[in-house]
Amino acid sequence: MLGFFLARQAGLDDPLRLRRAESTRRVLGLELNKDRDVERIHGSGVNTLDIEPVEARYMLSGGSDGVIVLYDLENSSRQPYYTCKAVCSVGRNHPDVHKYSVETVQWYPHDTGMFTSSSFDKTLKVWDTNTLQTADVFNFEETVYSHHMSPVATKHCLVAGHRQEILAVSWSPRCEYVLATASADSRVKLWDVRRASGCLITLDQHNGKKSQAVESANTAHNGKVNGLCFTSDGLHLLTVGTDNRMRLWNSSNGENTLVNYGKVCNDSRKGLKFTVSYGCSSEFVFVPYGSTIAVYTVYSGEQITMLKGHYKSVDCCVFQSNFQELYSGSRDCNILAWVPSLYEPVPDDEEPTTKSQLNPAFEDAWSSSDEEG
């Protein structure tokens, strides 16, 4: 660590290198926070979470009971043990509450004064955060499994939503007109909403090397594709399917990068909401895996750890990049907070950790003062 400070002081190092290395260390040290609770409001499973990008202070949750809750994540008490309180909620007695399970909640990307929600009741609702009243309601003929607003759009305010067997949608964080969709027919498509024909690429797990006569040709997975997520730079797309596989794709040409993540257990019958880190030396992906959350390095496929704390299946997780924290929602009705562990001093009778003992994720950024100086 001293080497980073010396190199930075001498102007020999990129200003972001220390930040990325420390972010990586914090992500690798994620553990269940026993000093922080998230107030339990939902009477059934938690399906979806979203943290607003403006202050990264407020979090939305949506449950199988149709309830939506807004939490304040800040520790205003300044006490070591505290509970993230619910600021307000759209409960069962609210006149505009969803009739059935809420599948997606999302903050308006540029202002905390508005958020959206979609549900199995075939509606997508736009909410005024201050009054907790609906500003608009969109009714559909079929179930809405997922929706998403672009985080980078400046020339449109489109909300992407799909019906029936489209299980996940996501706008690219790199190009405001590019949209990815995942469906129950094993296919993932990239769309340019400016084009009349729409579809840019249909992702092929075999990269076009198998005949069209083969059943799995021109499919992304060998089962339903129920989750997708762009990397923070938008250069790659991650998908998960009920074939217990996760794949990494080049988002510009649709190529399967063939990164092997091993078996990624996925028995969800609807959308699975996973997330990626931001600002680390080596980026990570957090995937609900039964009652645990599996953590992988995005580009090598190595499984780093399994986060254990829930006692029923996890359906969603969201990453808070300001402090490298993770929040997860489960069918056990709980929302858990995962925070970086604090390193304890090494006793004098123990040998210090050598570079060969460090996690490989550190290798491109973590070094000793001799190497940096």
UniProtKB/TrEMBL annotation:
Gene3D superfamilies according to UniProt: YVTN repeat-like/Quinoprotein amine dehydrogenase
Residue ranges the record marks as coiled coil: none
The keyword DNA repair is annotated on this UniProt entry: yes
Keyword Repeat: yes
GO cellular component: Cul4A-RING E3 ubiquitin ligase complex; nucleotide-excision repair complex
Pfam family, one: WD40
Residue spans of the WD repeats: 95-137, 159-194, 218-259, 307-338
BP GO terms, sorted: proteasome-mediated ubiquitin-dependent protein catabolic process; protein polyubiquitination; transcription-coupled nucleotide-excision repair
Keywords: DNA damage, DNA repair, Repeat, WD repeat
Region: Disordered, residue numbers: 347-373
Designated name of the protein: DNA excision repair protein ERCC-8 isoform X2
Species: Ursus maritimus (Polar bear)
